[in-house]
Design goal:
Layout (H helix, E strand, L loop, with lengths): L5 H6 L8 E13 L3 E7 L7 E6 L5 H7 L5 E11 L3 E13 L14 H5 L9 H23 L3 E2 L5 E2 L11 E2 L11 H6 L7 E3 L4 H11 L1 E9 L12 E10 L3 H22 L1 H10 L4 H10 L3 E4 H10 L16 H11 L4 E7 L15 E9 L3 E8 L4 H10 L8 H8 L5 E7 H9 L18
Parallel strand pairs: 3-5, 6-10, 12-13
Antiparallel strand pairs: 1-2, 1-4, 2-3, 4-5, 7-9, 8-9, 10-11, 11-16, 13-14, 14-15, 15-16
The structure holds 4-amino-1,4-dioxobutan-2-aminium adenosine-5'-monophosphate.
4-amino-1,4-dioxobutan-2-aminium adenosine-5'-monophosphate (4AD) binds next to strand 11, strand 15, strand 16 and helix 14.
Length: about 450
């Protein structure tokens, strides 16, 4: 069906003014008067609607009737003209109704609550709010690829089905084709007969594969779905989220922190530049002052704060936290909020966490207590990046694994990278959906993607 995208018409209007064009889309609003009807048509290519002016004497009456229904899909031919009120509009010559839309279409009203829209994920993409979310989601993905491409990283695709739990926290979804059968005495026998001949699951992080790729390609990143069977029913947790994971050889902790800050600023800048209309929408309707906030982030240096100092600041804060803060504890949302929203009012890297609360692969610091790991916390969301220098000494890594009771035989290939030409290297994981929340002001992670998967919700 030959037609022109509404975005193309609005991006280069002078080449189309006073010419006849065909557009296709869905009716957003329809208004009638005695001689003229008005329809706002949206085709999803941009936030703007194209107003159709329908002279009742010139267009087929039945077609007009079908076109005056919110949600109906149309193919319209007409003249693209300058309009004093709307900038540009279309003088309609003919209308074909592609798909009628009966009265039970749930998006009749102009505004619906996000809670209601969450109940119709298959239709909510037609709401302006989600059109804006998906435009920025797209641009943010592009910005990520552009950043890494420009800086000589290779995009590698890591497997989604895996046999190892990278974070070691046992939050993997199992992958199986085999129903449990009472004939098995032991778990091992059951897994041996399963599809892969061993226990398999969905990846919680592509890091381990990413590290192996980097140990030859130098700088890599992965960008794909990651799965966590956590029972965290919060506005920041998904069971399936999108994960950006660069891995950089010859980089120590300070180098990767510098890269992470530059990366975050670069992708924010890219979205501000390329999605002005959507960002204006979010600024007006979702988070007042959003654009100013992001511009402030671009100009300021992120804070780099030692975990030990963070604990001191929290203790001295005079605040009554639900969870008491002591050296060695994992920081809770309320602590992260205090540090980023009240104390520093900007993004904070917390560095050098206690080894006991972090994963086995992190570089052990000389103090014997902490690891060269950092989380990037941002106001309003909390942690968006988990990052570390990796332990690149074979013996130290092996001991950290043994201490955690990990089966070394399952990690032999990973250990090999420390045996054959090991190098200092570092990497991080950015929660893409959380980053999208930060850039758009969207408050619930369930509103950042098409079909959110959360505990009890498939
Ligand atoms: O801190 P995490 O668990 O780090 C890792 O997985 C490392 N292996 C990454 C690496 O170094 N390559 O997760 C990284 C980020 C978090 O900071 C958070 O933004 C996001 O992933 N994340 C989630 N996002 C949505 N829903 C969840 N359940 C998430 N769990 C982690």
């Amino acid at each position: 069906m030959k037609h022109t995208d509404i975005k193309v018409l609005f991006s280069n209007p002078t080449s189309y003014v006073d010419t006849t064009v065909v557009v296709c889309g869905w009716v957003r609003t329809a208004r009638d008067s005695k001689t003229v009807s008005f329809v706002e048509l949206n085709d999803g290519t941009c936030l703007k609607n194209l107003q159709l002016i329908i002279d009742k004497e010139k267009v087929d009456v039945d077609a007009i009737k079908g076109a005056m229904v919110v949600g109906a899909s149309l193919c319209v031919e007409g003249k693209f003209i300058v309009s004093e009120k709307n900038g540009y509009e279309m003088q309609t010559q003919s209308i074909t109704v592609l798909g009628e839309c009966p009265q039970d279409y749930p998006l009749q009203k102009k505004r619906h609550t996000l809670e209601f829209l969450r109940t119709i994920p298959h239709l909510r993409v037609r709401a302006r709010y989600f059109e804006a979310v998906f435009a920025v989601r797209h641009q943010l993905s592009l910005a990520i690829h552009e950043y890494f491409h420009k800086n000589n990283y290779k995009y590698v695709h890591a497997p989604i089905i895996t046999g190892s739990d990278c974070e070691g926290s046992g939050e993997m979804f199992r992958v199986t084709t085999q129903p449990w059968n009472a004939k098995y005495d032991k778990e091992g026998e059951y897994f041996a007969e399963d599809f892969f001949g061993k226990k398999a699951g969905l990846t919680v992080s592509a890091q381990l594969e990413g590290e192996m790729a980097a140990m030859g390609l130098g700088k890599i990143y992965t960008f794909g779905p990651t799965f966590r069977a956590e029972h965290s029913n919060t506005t920041r947790h998904l069971s399936e989220f999108w994960h950006v994971e660069p891995e950089v050889c010859f980089a120590e902790i300070d180098d990767i922190i510098e890269i992470a800050e530059d990366f975050i600023k670069s992708i924010i800048q890219n979205v501000l530049q390329n999605c002005p209309e959507e960002m204006e929408f979010f600024n007006q309707w979702v988070e007042k002052g959003l654009i100013e906030k992001l511009n402030h982030v671009l100009k300021s240096d992120f804070v780099k704060l030692d975990y030990t100092d963070a604990v001191e600041i929290l203790k001295q804060s005079g605040k009554e936290f639900k969870y008491t803060v002591e050296w060695g504890c994992d920081l809770q949302t309320e602590h992260e909020k205090y540090l980023t929203e009240e104390h520093f009012k900007k993004p904070v890297f917390i560095v050098n966490y206690p080894a006991d609360i972090k994963a086995f692969y992190m570089k052990q610091n000389a103090d014997g207590k902490t690891v060269a790991a950092t989380d990037l916390l941002v106001p309003g969301i909390g942690e968006i990046i988990g990052c570390s220098e990796r332990e690149w000494d074979y013996e130290k890594l092996k001991n950290a694994m043994l201490k955690r009771g990990m089966p070394l035989e399952s990690y032999q290939e990973y250990l090999d990278t420390r045996k054959f030409g090991s190098v200092p290297h570092s990497g991080f994981g950015l929660g893409f959906d959380r980053m999208l929340m930060y850039v758009t002001g969207v408050q619930n992670i369930r509103d950042t993607l098409l079909f959110p998967r959360t505990v009890g919700n498939l």
